[in-house]
């Protein structure tokens, strides 16, 4: 092993992530499909066929396994399982069961997300997670899906980035406002936390031995000066830390990190002039990952292991993707060396996909032709796959 490499522990998950709406295409029963096609929508382009992942999942899994990865995180789409209230699609359940079995057949550990931003349109129209019966409806869906997870899936994500889901609701209610200064919608935040805890308890009852958690968008809030430390903590709590605190009783927590946010006494600051930015407009800051896992571990404590469920960069320069990921993995290795219990690293994303309004931001390890859907692994995919095969990361 090279002197600058960190040996990964046995069983460490090394792979990539996707989300159903962003790769499957044709998710017509979801709230996001309706949002994309609403009159006057600010969405630049609709998802359409996305990466046709609903039909090409075997090819995607073959590529990931062939590259050397041992894990794949993907999501089950509630709007396909229950397109109308109380009407269950057994064909959709069978589809996702085949996907789960497909990961196992290829030597990939499935990490399955049950809610990745999108909900059935009927659920959203009834008030979404702010509705009085939201928890009961979500648990009913989770209980419907549980049999296809049983004995096949060891890591389940109930809800992806609840802090961002609550913030998105605030953004929808305040069009044109500076989203960096909006508080997440309180009713939605409370509903998401309640739904997560209830779903976790239901899955523990139905699937004993399965590890249940959720994933948080880590903004790596940093005080712009010593005088801003209190303001930074106050800014972070409703947007991130309260959701991390809600995971203290979970089996694990997912860390999702891309960049950092500087906070002054009067609020968050924009990316500094002259700083390198990604296609998303975020500051190029690979150190964020190591800082995010340390921050999360400090809140949940040593009894809740961490899996990095998303980390990556939107760039058209794949060499820059390798540079960024090298820096991120070095920070992760340092945190693990210092005792942070990290059980996996799942890169965002496996494929170039639909980034919630546009196909321009390319996060993928694998390029996708928008017309033919041909998949082409990038050099970064082979580089990261080689690390996975060697069970080591840069130190």
CATH class: Alpha Beta
Radius of gyration: 20 Å
Low-confidence runs? none
What structural category do the secondary elements indicate? Answer: alpha/beta
Number of alpha- plus pi-helical segments: 13
Shape: globular
Instruction: Tell me the CATH superfamily.
Output: Glycosidases
Question: Could you give a quick summary of the protein structure above?
Answer:
The chain is α/β, with parallel strands linked by helices.
Task: Summarize the helices and strands and which ones pair or pack.
Blueprint (H helix, E strand, L loop, with lengths): L4 E3 L5 E5 L2 H4 L7 H7 L15 H15 L3 E5 L2 H4 L8 H16 L3 E5 L7 H5 L8 H16 L5 E6 L1 H12 L12 H21 L4 E8 L2 E3 L5 H17 L6 E6 L3 E4 L2 E2 L19 H13 L5 E6 L6 H20 L4 E7 L17 E3 L6 E3 L1 H12 L1 E3 L1
Parallel strand pairs: 2-3, 2-12, 3-4, 4-5, 5-6, 6-8, 7-9, 8-11, 11-12
Antiparallel strand pairs: 1-15, 9-10, 13-14
Question: Can you tell me about this structure?
Answer:
This protein is α/β, with parallel strands linked by helices. The chain has a single domain, classed as TIM Barrel, CATH 3.20.20. Helices cover 41% and strands 17% of the residues. The chain contains 13 helices and 15 strands. Strands 2-3-4-5-6-8-11-12 form an eight-stranded parallel barrel, surrounded by seven helices. α7 (134-149) runs parallel beside α9 (186-206) and α12 (318-337) packs parallel to α13 (379-390). The longest helix is centred in the middle third of the chain and has 21 residues, at 186-206. The chain is globular and about 55 Å long. The mean pLDDT is 97. Keywords: Glycosidase, Hydrolase. Its EC number is 3.2.1.21. Pfam families: Glyco_hydro_1.
